[in-house]
Design brief:
Layout (H helix, E strand, L loop, with lengths): L4 H19 L15 E7 L13 E6 L2 E5 L5 H12 L11 E3 L5 H4 L2 H10 L6 E5 L3 H11 L1 H9 L11 E5 L4 E5 L4 E6 L9 E6 L4 E4 L7 H7 L4 E4 L4 H5 L11 H8 L3 H11 L3 E4 L17 H10 L6 E3 L7
Parallel strand pairs: 3-4, 4-5, 5-6, 10-11, 11-12, 12-13
Antiparallel strand pairs: 1-2, 2-3, 7-8, 8-9, 9-10
Helix pairs in contact: 7-10, 10-11
Length: about 325
């Protein structure tokens, strides 16, 4: 029997429709940004320690009523912020406009952009000191960065640029106990304890604005504190390791340590996250900082965004979820 060309063109679309129906995929996609009163999430960096050119280091921005609040400052944070300002019209993320920042913990992949965040916006005209909140050790890190760049600062303040030495200053607020750590006219920020291996202190944060509640954990193994912090929040931003990543014996492991043991102490798997999300019941589960690739033909042993989604759904989570990419807006 001769097949009609129109029917042939429909077959791929029907196959996609049937596959999505079988998986019961409930995906939420990022939306174009329109600057308005209200709250948006901008994913500046969704990567992990692997220097993936497609994903900068972990950094997230919450924009509320035209003000930006950053969580973590992985490699590339200032360039991604500049891209969001230039390409998406998010003027709050023009680097010189960034003022308030929160750190979940001091691992290098979450902090390697810190010197850039201190210095570049200052060079580009920041008119105030940076306000940074985080764990113990943040003050020492800040002091050492400023000391390392003391000659640069001297030349820029005493040379022809005449930059203000006050505006390169950083006001560090080390958090001693969980609870409310910041509040202004736009947002209330509450810290909660997370568990990340051998670190003595790591924090997640809940942001409450007039129209949204947003919880971001940073790196953590499963904790009841995450469930309690969300408790039906609008968005839960969380990492997840795929079982495909952990169980693939052919995957390169240049570090040489046992990844399953490391994961159990430092991170959350897809199956564990499904359990957390089923208890926390966020209106959107947003996945970031995962060991995935966006170019699987170039990294055949790596997990993909589809692997993340399918594993979480196979573990019993049926709520809306999305795998974030750099510069996505939610």
């Amino acid at each position: 029997m001769k097949k009609h060309p129109a029917i042939l063109r429909l077959i791929p679309a029907l196959a996609v429709l049937l596959l999505n129906s079988a998986l019961d995929v409930r995906l939420t996609h990022a939306e174009p940004y329109t600057e308005k009163v209200g709250t948006n999430i901008v994913m500046l960096g969704t990567g992990n320690p692997n220097p993936d050119p497609d994903r900068s280091g972990p950094a997230t921005a919450i924009i509320s009523n035209g003000s930006a609040y950053l969580i973590d400052f992985g490699p590339g944070v200032v360039r991604r912020a500049a891209a969001a300002a230039r390409d998406k019209g998010i003027t709050a993320l023009a680097p010189a406009n960034i003022k308030v920042v929160f750190s979940t913990h001091l691992h290098s992949d979450h902090t390697a952009g810190y010197p850039d965040l201190i210095l570049t916006p200052w060079v580009m005209g920041r008119r105030w000191p940076l306000e940074v909140y985080g764990t113990k050790g943040l003050q020492a890190m800040t002091d050492h960065i400023l000391a390392a760049y003391q000659e640069d600062i001297r030349i820029r303040t005493q040379g022809l640029e005449h930059l203000s030495p006050d505006n390169v200053h950083v006001n560090v607020h080390e958090i001693s106990t969980p609870g409310q750590v910041y509040k202004d006219a736009n947002v209330t920020v509450t810290s909660f304890p997370t568990k990340h291996g051998d670190w003595d202190q790591t924090y997640g944060y809940r942001f409450d604005t007039a129209d949204r509640s947003i919880v971001i954990t940073g790196d953590t193994s499963p904790t009841q504190a995450t469930v309690d912090a969300c408790h039906g929040c609008d968005v839960l931003i969380h990492e997840a390791l795929t079982l495909k990543f952990l169980n693939n014996s052919r995957r390169p492991n240049p570090q040489g340590f046992d990844l399953s043991t490391y994961s159990g102490k430092y991170h959350t798997t897809t199956t564990q996250l499904a359990e957390i999300a089923n208890q926390a019941k966020p209106k959107l589960l947003l996945l970031y900082h995962n060991p995935i690739t966006l170019q699987p033909t170039k990294r055949p042993f790596a997990s993909t965004p589809d692997d993340l989604l399918q594993e979480i759904q196979a573990a019993g989570y049926t709520g809306p979820l999305s795998v974030a990419r750099d510069l996505d807006v939610y």
